[in-house]
Design a protein that fits this description.
675 residues, alpha+beta, SH3 type barrels, 24 helices, 11% strand, elongated
Length: 675
């Protein structure tokens, strides 16, 4: 009951998406809408994954500077796993508010200002515990230090001198260390001092009556007298009396000089009514953030003037009235709300099918085919879980176990560093892994995130393929050697469409590594290299022989180049449509001369495509221009699977073509070739 009761000021988890991590917010108000639903006005907190990489670098530099100032670093003994999980506990406060339905609340958490005197491991030991030290502005994209920062260290602390013993004299010059503003042992009595202060108030009231601007702001005598009785007038009178050695006559002469009485006004009188209204509006919007108040509402006022006016404004009746109104509004608002436990099924939940043996390379014997093709958890690499959840884009088919899924939802990252996460743990709402854990290692481009060219659509087929580089890590290379019996590369090469279970292979590698099994060391081949002197002597003794080249140049009598296509006749036959080849050459097919000793060879681009024939035989054929292949008609990437039937048919065809070529060559040609 108490766990589901949420009050103003609680830090809560809020779910805005079934696949994204929870949002961390602080409840400021609980309002009931006209429809009867409850809305929560919350303050936004941001994770490291929600901020740009450049700002994250600034935050890390700020933390490093604070760590260097400490005498004993607190993060010196942290492991890589602890540092990885500690980044998930860091948040960034913001001044941004938003209203969300209270039904989106999924639980409570704790957020605290970073305590520099406390060990950082204390945040990891507590569940649902977060910390923050910087303030993030989502509109300006800036990071600022929080105003509540604890100033600990030699830069902020004063050096306390040793205590003086009895009889020791203080050698320090007190006039340089401090300035005396009032002497309580002065020769004047308390009655004389009070009478002098009454005279100072009267002088201040008379000065306001003579001042035109003060007469407009304080039109009545009572208002002028009240303004003259403020602290600024009394402080000036006592300071004047101290500077003149507590001589009443000389002090009064200074208060009323020859030019007129002295007028002392504080910030309450200097500010106009419109400026006071703007200050109250800014205070309602920003709270006590005086930097934002000055920047957005009162840029012509100094920060000192705004702060001084604030503390004087708190002594007025206006402040008391507003405080009473806020208390009455708080009584009418909701103070707490009960949210029942959310027990609806998550859309990312994977249904498990039992009873089917695993058919994935690398799966151990007796394993059952679970949802996801026998893949291990993306975070802890566990292969057994009561429930699995899909994680990441659907084409990657990554999944998480129950504990890692709850860690992902609460802390916005994985328990163990993964290749799916960037160097700064900054993952998108639907993280796209750089290298899939289980992938097909055939020519399928989709498994390597390369767009497949579709020949059906000309627009999509004209796009060029993206180049990619698959760079194996050192751990993957070591696992290749130590887990050869599980990977079975030759068998996997013959089955390109069966994915490899990288999680099971990595688990086996870690097990063998812990047991002390070391893979086969690579063979190192030593090559005996010759010296530079021996190589130069060898090259000098055997100089290279360059054959003379004949450079043919075109002369004036050189025949013009042949055209690749025969020109059409411009006679009357050209107007009668297409004609046959024999009609254009003006030779009948039965009257063409035949040369039995010369074999006609097909010609392409002026060169014979076969091995027989002579150069002269190509002159009688038609020159065919080589066609450039179109990118749209280019075929997709494919592989050829050779079976026993296809290989036998190919050998039979080659043997038949070889016999036919041997028969077509005349006996004289074969005899001359043999000689």
């Amino acid at each position: 009951m108490a766990a589901n009761m949420y009050r103003v000021g609680d830090y809560v988890f809020i779910e805005n998406s079934s696949s994204n991590p929870y949002l961390i917010r602080r409840i400021e108000e609980l309002n009931k809408t006209a429809s009867g639903n409850v809305e929560a006005k919350v303050v936004c907190f941001y994770r490291r994954r929600d901020i740009s990489h450049s700002l994250i670098q600034l935050a890390d530099k700020h933390a490093q500077d604070l760590e260097e100032e400490k005498e004993s670093p607190s993060e010196a003994d942290l492991t890589d796993k602890q540092e990885h999980q500690l980044r998930h506990r860091e948040l960034f406060l913001s001044r941004q508010y938003e209203s969300l339905p209270a039904t989106h609340i999924r639980g409570k958490c704790s957020v605290a200002l970073l305590n520099e005197t406390e060990a950082v491991l204390s945040y990891l030991d507590k569940e649902d515990m977060f910390f923050y030290s910087l303030v993030y502005d989502p509109t300006q994209k800036t990071l600022l230090a929080d105003k509540g920062e604890i100033r600990v260290g030699p830069r902020f602390q004063a050096d306390v001198p040793d205590m003086l013993q009895e009889g020791d004299s203080d050698e320090r010059d007190q006039s340089k260390l401090e300035e005396k503003l009032w002497d309580p042992d002065c020769p004047l009595s308390s009655k004389q001092i009070d009478q002098f202060l009454v005279v100072a108030r009267a002088v201040g009231t008379f000065a306001r009556a003579l001042d035109c601007s003060s007469s407009v702001r304080q039109p009545s005598l009572h208002a002028s007298a009240a303004a003259a009785s403020r602290d600024i007038t009394l402080f000036h009178a006592m300071d004047t009396l101290h500077r003149h050695g507590y001589d009443l006559s000389s002090a009064l002469s200074v208060l009323v000089p020859s030019g007129g009485p002295v007028l002392c006004r504080d910030e309450m009188e200097e500010w106009s009514a419109s400026e006071a209204a703007m200050f109250e509006e800014a205070l309602e919007k920003y709270g006590k953030d005086f930097n934002d108040i000055r920047q957005d509402f009162l840029p012509w006022k100094s920060l000192t003037s705004i702060i001084e006016y604030y503390y004087m404004w708190k002594t007025t009746d206006r402040y008391v009235q507003q405080k009473r109104l806020k208390a009455a509004e708080a009584e009418s608002k909701l103070k707490q709300v009960y949210i029942p436990t959310y027990n609806k099924p998550n859309p990312n939940q994977i249904s498990v099918t039992n009873g089917k043996m695993a058919t994935v390379n690398g799966a151990g014997p007796g394993a059952y085919h679970a949802a996801g093709g026998g893949r291990a958890c993306e975070s802890c690499y566990s292969t057994q879980s009561a429930q699995w959840y899909s994680w990441g884009p659907p084409n990657m088919q990554c999944r998480l176990c129950v504990s890692c899924w709850m860690y992902w939802k609460k802390y916005g990252g994985l328990k163990m560093p993964s290749r799916a996460e960037g160097p700064e743990e900054k993952t998108p709402p639907s993280p796209v892994p750089n290298e899939p854990r289980s992938r097909g290692h055939g020519p399928r481009q989709s498994s390597h995130m390369v767009p497949v060219r579709n020949s059906g659509s000309p627009k999509s087929s004209t796009k060029t393929k993206q180049a990619f580089l698959l760079q194996a890590t050192r751990l993957t290379k070591l696992a290749r050697h130590m887990c050869r019996d599980i990977i079975r590369l030759r068998r996997a090469a013959r089955r390109p469409f069966v994915p490899i279970n990288c999680g099971a292979i990595k688990a086996a590698y870690m097990l063998r590594l812990s047991e002390g099994q070391v893979g086969r060391p690579p063979r190192i081949r030593t090559t005996q290299r010759s010296t530079l002197t021996s190589v130069l002597q060898f090259l000098e003794s055997r100089p290279a022989i360059h054959a003379p080249r004949s450079h043919r140049t075109l002369g004036l009598q050189a025949p013009p180049p042949r055209r690749l296509l025969s020109s059409l006749p411009h006679g009357p036959h050209g107007l009668l449509g297409k004609r046959s080849f024999h009609h254009h050459t003006r030779a009948e097919p039965e009257k063409r001369p035949e040369n039995p000793g010369q074999t006609t060879v097909p010609v392409q681009n002026g060169r014979s495509s076969g091995g027989g024939g002579t150069r002269g035989s190509a002159r009688g054929g038609v020159m065919i221009r080589k066609r450039r292949p179109n990118l749209i008609d280019a075929p997709d990437d494919s592989f050829f699977f050779v079976s026993r039937e296809t290989s036998a048919a190919a050998l039979t065809q080659l043997f038949t073509e070889g016999q036919a070529a041997a028969v077509s060559v005349p006996a004289e040609a074969r005899l001359s070739t043999a000689l």
